[in-house]
Structure to design on (318 residues):
């Protein structure tokens, strides 16, 4: 019998990354599945098998008729499902919605909306179905000599931030990552990364900085709780940007704890902006970028805001 596409409209499609949280999901999925079943949510699920697989799975599920999604994994899994939303043309993205059961090492998007890390409680949030329509970032970059596009829902980081993400992601791929990996790589990276002269076009206005690190985004946290964009409002139609200029090693070390409170932006070597469009061109080759913790490519970067484009299921409004 042929299944009608609209028979899936009220079902949930759960995208599961078994390698998230240093392969924690692989060990815990049986328990998570039982919690979904006990919740009464009508759902189907699929496991990701390789990088970017969640994008493909999501696009195929949308074609079949699913409109409600859950990402079980970290910020990277969530990012891939969102990219599946925006990289398809079969339905209007505003007809789709997404919740998350956070299991990664960072879970920074969920931190913004106070999504519990407890499996049962995060599934309860999905059951209650409180929604929030947030902005989405669209970024173009270069990889292997070609321009590519990626969508993101939290923060994109460049320079030092991208180096730390690259080191951390490499450890995750080797099965060596843990909750302390990001902080360890942050400290190690301080002695490795060299600032770079970078041109930044903020809504067309050209500025130049000797940049140590840069963050552009929609929400406030990355790196496992660092408040890189402390003034970000996720539905104001604006990108927030924080630039950390070149500073001495002693100053950098002294400011580390202030990254978690967001008070580091008061330092005279830190600049903040808001804009709808940002272009970033580094004068040094190999100036890298990450988005929602996923290592992508190098400059030039064009970042644009898509206002109130994504319906998410949240616990608390920021």
């Amino acid at each position: 019998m042929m299944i009608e596409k609209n028979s899936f409209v009220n079902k949930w499609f759960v995208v599961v990354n078994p390698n998230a949280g240093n392969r924690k999901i692989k060990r815990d999925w049986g328990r998570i599945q039982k919690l979904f079943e006990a919740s009464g949510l009508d759902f189907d699920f699929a496991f990701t098998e390789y990088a970017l697989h969640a994008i493909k799975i999501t696009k195929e599920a949308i074609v079949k008729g699913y409109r409600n999604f859950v990402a079980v994994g970290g910020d990277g899994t969530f990012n891939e499902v969102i990219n599946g939303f925006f990289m398809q043309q079969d339905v209007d993205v505003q007809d789709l919605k997404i919740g998350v059961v956070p299991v990664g090492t960072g879970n920074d998007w969920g931190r913004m909306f106070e999504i519990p890390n407890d499996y049962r409680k995060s599934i309860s949030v999905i059951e209650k179905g409180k929604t929030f329509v947030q902005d989405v970032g669209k970024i173009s970059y270069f990889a292997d000599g070609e321009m590519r596009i990626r969508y993101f829902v939290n923060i994109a980081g460049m320079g030092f931030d991208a180096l730390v993400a690259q080191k951390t992601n490499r450890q995750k791929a080797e099965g060596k990552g843990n909750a302390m990996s990001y902080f360890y790589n942050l400290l190690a990276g301080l002695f490795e990364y060299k600032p770079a002269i970078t041109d930044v076009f903020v809504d067309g206005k050209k500025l130049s900085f000797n940049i140590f690190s840069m963050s552009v985004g929609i929400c406030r946290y990355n790196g496992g709780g660092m408040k890189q964009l402390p003034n970000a409002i996720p539905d104001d139609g604006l990108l927030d940007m924080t630039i950390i200029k070149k500073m001495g090693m002693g100053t950098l070390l002294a400011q580390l704890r202030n990254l978690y409170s967001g008070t580091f932006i008061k330092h005279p070597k830190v600049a903040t902006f808001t804009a709808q469009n940002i272009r970033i061109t580094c004068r040094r080759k190999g100036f890298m970028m990450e988005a929602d913790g996923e290592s992508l490519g190098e400059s030039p970067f064009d970042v644009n805001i898509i206002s109130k484009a994504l319906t998410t299921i949240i616990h608390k409004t920021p």
Remarks:
- The longest strand covers residues 294-313.
